[in-house]
Amino acid sequence: MNKLTFPLLLSLAGVALLSGCKKESNGSTPEPGTLVTPRIAALEETLSFSGALEIYPCKAGTTLYYGNYYNSQLSFVDAMYTIANGDVSTALRPMTLPIGEYNMIYWGVSQAQQGVSYAAGAVRDPSISLNQDLSTQSYTLRKYSGSDTTYYPVYDFVFATQPVDIGSQDIAVTLHRVVAGLSVVLQKDDNTQLDSEIASINAMVGGVSNGLNFATGEATGQPWRTVRFPLSLSDDNMTASNPVVLLFPTTENPPLKVVLTLKDGTTRTYRSTLANTLSANTKLTVTINIGTIFDSETEAGGFEVNQWDEKTETITPTAE
Prior knowledge:
Pfam families: Mfa2 (PF08842)
CATH architecture of the largest domain: Sandwich
Strand content: over 45%
Family: Belongs to the bacteroidetes fimbrillin superfamily. FimB/Mfa2 family.
Radius of gyration: 23 Å
CATH class of the largest domain: Mainly Beta
Protein name: FimB/Mfa2 family fimbrial subunit
Largest sheet: 11 strands, mixed
Helix content: under 10%
Number of domains: 2
Subcellular location: Cell outer membrane
Structural class: mainly beta
Order of helices and strands: EEEEEEEEEEEEEEEEEEEEEEEEEE
InterPro entries: FimB/Mfa2/Mfa3
Number of helices: 0
Oligomer: single chain
């Protein structure tokens, strides 16, 4: 997905895609072997989708990548479209295939609205070639540079797979979000301003899957990673928070750590374990209430977690 990168939007619930095949100028169906460029239209299911959509045609009944005709030659270059408010905006690389049966793999990244989601995501892309078994490939996390052992958040990936008979049927497919969202809000337990000695704040969530399988969209699991992202202070210094970050799914009860770096270089760390798993299409908002940061023995007041299904829980972290 590095060929066309979009930041992320968490408002997508699902997108239906319809595709029909062009007929010859005399109205007849193309003969077998004729190259066909399907018509693509994105229809919103509950909310419209804007972003990038890539389509990977595989041989029927398999995950072996067939390829796509590009500049009249069979190529490993996949089909790519930009979608705006549910409709095709640009066919950057149209899907052009001979009539026949295929197994289509769809990957999309929804486009961000400023301030809604974290804009600095990154992933490592799979290596794609003709006749390759795409089930052996994955999108994987990208590590921060240097000696840092933590990883970037990811993009707002959506996914689908479906058998298609090009030339004889329309296509209707729903894209499903395969990542989770997390937002952290830090505030004082007495509703006063955060201490002016705070220089920076970073949140880290552990137990994050290292990747997503390219052919199934499922989390690949181990090795489990830790994803890091910054929190920004509000103008009135009452809270620190982040735009929603996107993560690959996690283990059950992933650990959460918030590190406050003070202007004198010292740090204060708050740790806890989330009671909810960050699974695909799950969004958690975690509110952390802290006391006086200069007392390393002070315990935070608790994490209040609001899930997309509006469940709320309180957990007690420890301060170091």
